[in-house]
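FAQ: What does the model actually see?

It sees only this:
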Amino acid sequence: MAVNSPTPPPSSPPSRALWLLALVPLVLGGVGWWSWGPGEAGPDEAEAASSSPGAGQTAGAPGSRASAVAPSPGAPGKVATTVATPPRSREEEEREAQRMLWEKRLERAKFSRDTYIQGTRYPPESRHIREHPDQEQPAAPERTRSLKRDSADVQLRLKQDKVFVAGDEVVTFSVGCEGQTRQPLPCQVTNAMAHEAEHMLGGQPPLAAVPLVFVDDGTQGDALARDGMLTASFQPSKQGFPLFSGTLRISFQVRSGSSEGSAFFDILYTPVPPARFTGKVREVVERGSLQLYLGIQVRMAGRYVVAGRVDDEAGVPFAYVSFNEELPEGAQEVKLTVFGKLILDEAPTFPLKLRDVEGFLLKESGDPDRELLTALRGYVHTTREHPNNVFSSEEWQSEERSRYINEFTKDVDEAQKELDALTGKPGAP
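And it is asked to produce this:
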């Protein structure tokens, strides 16, 4: 007699609910064991594989959950596991943002401090000439512009050998006409007049204008006859402005073929210089630097600004030296310093040569704001040979420099302190 196995009783609703609840952690845990394709490892096989010696497995951070198990591409039967990075909390994100912010502030603070230290190794009155490219030569502007505003067919080439003129100095002006490819064009200068610049009048009647003649015949300062550059010479002290102090303008008309236009030059003029350079230089090494004491006879006491250029033995521009101090009346000396560390760092070839010294008396008010001295053009003094061991390698120091470095260092220390507090890792200032 066949015995039938008993049919299991149908599950009651409570038991089904408990069975479903048991599945919830598996689903929410992201284990992903609910489907396996052909050749894929099931739960028991994956567990055995992960626990077997030499089997590859990825360890997650404490508290992290393993992500879904999937077969490695191209390697049947091998299981690759990945670790899901837990999302950051809002507090962690804010902390990371603060860390990045203070890292940038620290970098900027260090850059500011280091740049200032590097830039102030030498005193302001003794710098390399490359820091003052516009002062390598005395001001002698050269510029080009269109003869007519609405046409570029004719270009004017304008030159002047001085901007600052004092006493009996003479200044020369040159005008040439060129095409767009810089080929010379016929040029004629007419109606040239020297007069006060308009901004100098101040409601007062102007002085009488003085006519000037531009020539191209090798005279009156013209460098080369018939080269297409027309030149005029002007000596304010002898040509109508013996007592004038301020800006003088030379206005003129230019014609080239059928084109015509106007242009002008400006100079700053002092009729009676407030002091005079003697041209004598006393040379001495003091405190590790080369000092050039230039003689000056002061007629009007006040603050004098003097500047000169220093070339090496081959005539290569090396240093820009300056003086800015009060001077009393009488025979005085202007100290021009070639800083010792600058000499050691740049190693110019001796002897050095001082050239093109200019200066002015700074006025507290009024226009113009200065009274010019007659410049010393060309080489003024050639130094002796000096061995390197007489010069100091120490950086320039001053109360102001120390104060600024201290302030920049405070910024660095503050940023480092804040960053250490966020990272828990002490850093070097």
